[in-house]
Inverse folding.
């Protein structure tokens, strides 16, 4: 089995590529499932999360999430299951970055507002 | 609730963990909507500012969305549209995206509601255009600003 990232030949049962560390077992499993005629679990694209983050968290990170959401669906359509899973994870990560910063700003805002009110009393 | 508690709950009952998560999220959304219904963001500094607007002075694609939600909750669709048309237009689309997987699960058709990547790229283009145009300081683009 060859690594799809760097092309190094690996043992057929290897989980990660010995050269670059890319997960290669997943690709093999997908091929086995497809050969057996089975259905793969669906890959979430986090488009709803991404749009909500863009509209309500006020940061460009939600847009990064939308880019990866589009990549999930284009890779699924092209049959690149491992690539779609990878893009799905990135879409999820960037949603949480956006949400986390939005939440931190919100909590800080209420914290300082609370301190402001207390100091006036 | 700490992560470990959730893991224990999940170990005993995956459905309970899912239910608690759903309860927590819907509770947070309901609380936020209730606050937005009662307190108008246009009236003062109740709500946190948009970080992007505070740092750059420019409007982001989400600027005005909290004021727009307040107007929507009071039934003023046109006022909400004037504050952030992108947010108002995105709501029916988000509803569609949330319903599709449920429909697909019931009808056992995995492909139901799969949005071709082309449409997601188009949505991205619309958002970026909206972002640029609402910052232009002359008519008719000034009407896109909140």
């Amino acid at each position: 089995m060859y690594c799809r990232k760097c092309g190094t030949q690996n043992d057929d049962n290897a989980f990660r590529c010995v050269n670059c560390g890319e997960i290669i077992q997943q690709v093999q499993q997908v091929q086995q499932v497809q050969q057996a005629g089975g259905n793969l679990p669906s890959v979430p694209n986090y488009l709803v999360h991404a749009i909500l983050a863009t509209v309500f968290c006020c940061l460009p990170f939600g847009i990064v999430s939308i880019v990866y959401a589009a990549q999930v669906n284009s890779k699924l359509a092209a049959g690149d299951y491992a690539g779609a899973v990878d893009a799905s994870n990135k879409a999820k990560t960037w949603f949480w970055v956006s949400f986390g910063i939005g939440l931190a700003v919100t909590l800080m805002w209420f914290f300082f507002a609370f301190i402001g009110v207390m100091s006036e009393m | 609730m700490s992560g470990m508690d959730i893991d224990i709950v999940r170990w005993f009952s995956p459905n309970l963990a899912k239910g608690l998560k759903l309860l927590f999220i819907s509770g947070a959304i309901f609380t936020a909507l209730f606050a937005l219904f009662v307190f108008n963001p246009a009236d003062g500094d109740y709500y946190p500012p948009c970080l992007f607007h505070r740092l750059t002075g420019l409007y982001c694609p989400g600027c005005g969305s909290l004021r727009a939600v307040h107007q929507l909750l009071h039934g003023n669709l046109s006022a909400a549209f004037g504050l952030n048309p992108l947010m108002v237009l995105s709501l029916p689309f988000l509803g569609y995206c949330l319903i599709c997987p449920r429909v697909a699960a019931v009808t056992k058709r995995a492909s139901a509601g799969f949005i071709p990547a082309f449409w997601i790229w188009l949505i991205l283009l619309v958002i970026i255009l909206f972002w640029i145009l609402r910052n232009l300081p002359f008519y008719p683009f000034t009407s896109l600003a909140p």
User: Anything to note?
Assistant: Chain B touches chain A at residues 45, 47-53, 60-63, 65-66, 84, 86-87, 90, 93-94, 97-98, 110, 114-117, 120-121, 123-124, 127-128 (CB under 8 Å). DSSP finds seven helices and no strands in chain B.
